[in-house]
Design brief:
Blueprint lengths: L3 H10 L5 H16 L5 E5 L5 H8 L3 E6 L2 H11 L8 E4 L10 E6 L10 H13 L1 E12 L1 H6 L5 E7 L2 E12 L4 E11 L5 E11 L3 H10 L2 E8 L2 E5 L6 E8 L11
Parallel strand pairs: 1-2, 1-4, 2-3, 4-5
Antiparallel strand pairs: 5-12, 6-7, 7-8, 8-9, 10-11, 10-12
Helix pairs in contact: 2-3
């Protein structure tokens, strides 16, 4: 259970993230793959809706889902008062979603790394496959497990100003190489303009999936991998030491998994 302050400060903590540039990159990847703009987009792990809102602004019919109802509530609040078309936000598991089919599914900000079991990863990919139109595209980013094992995440201290508040974050990763996982603990201290202080901690686990593993599970789930590039650098082919990578996949006709046939 996350501290309530985490939700209050989520968008401020990630205020340096260029969501608009990321959406432009993803739409460019889709257009380069199929030669058109997507009409319906599913955003899996939508968080507070920043990507989904920009996709809707660009004319896409967007459904955003997340397992964390706290961030979905924030996404709903962002839509209030808007006169333009806005995304539909749901606190829902993609395996239980009933929302029709989509031209494009995105899963951004390392959503894949939060999945910690191989069978769960396969079921996740199969659910994405089920919700795509034939030849639909699935784009996701993730940590490259090989790069993270060779060059593990390090301690980091950061400070920035947002809306008159100073935010200090102490990040301490704990890497378990034998389990190909890392626990990241973040201690946040917020100093207001009046000198008042608020503190909270948030932690998360990331699984260090290797590209080889992801490729094989994707193929079993019925995807063709079109290419794997460096994140936000679509013309740069990912290598073993590219820390953040992007997968661009296309739905094929057949799912090879026995799970799908039960």
């Amino acid at each position: 259970m996350m501290d309530p302050l985490y939700y209050d400060y989520y968008d401020k903590i990630y205020s340096g993230k260029n969501y608009r540039a990321e959406v432009e990159t993803v739409l460019g990847l889709f257009q380069n793959s199929v030669g058109k703009i997507p009409k319906r987009v599913l955003d899996v792990g939508c968080g507070t809706g920043s990507h989904a809102l920009i996709l809707a602004e660009k004319g896409c019919d967007v459904v955003g889902i997340d397992l964390d109802c706290g961030v979905v509530d924030i996404a709903h609040r962002k839509c209030s008062g808007q006169t333009n078309a806005t995304p539909v936000f749901l606190c829902e598991d993609v395996s239980k979603l009933e929302a029709g089919k989509f031209d494009l599914t995105v899963s951004l900000f390392n959503v894949i790394n939060y999945i910690d079991q191989m069978d769960s990863l396969l079921m996740f990919f199969e659910s994405i496959h089920k919700h795509l139109f034939d030849e639909g595209v699935f784009i996701f980013d993730c940590w490259n497990g090989l790069a993270a094992i060779l060059d593990p995440p390090r301690n980091k201290d950061s400070r920035f100003l947002v809306g008159g508040e100073q935010i200090d974050i102490t990040t301490r990763p704990c890497v378990e190489l034998m389990n190909q996982s890392v626990r990241v603990d973040n201690c946040v201290e917020v100093t207001g303009s009046d000198g008042s202080k608020r503190k909270f901690i948030f932690s998360y686990h990331q699984t260090l999936w290797t590209p080889w593993c992801l490729k094989n599970v994707l193929m079993i789930a019925g995807f063709e991998i079109l290419y794997v590039s460096a994140w936000m650098q679509p013309n740069v082919i990912a290598t073993y030491n590219t820390w953040k990578i992007t997968f661009v996949c296309q739905k094929t006709g057949k799912v090879l998994s026995h799970i799908n046939n039960k």
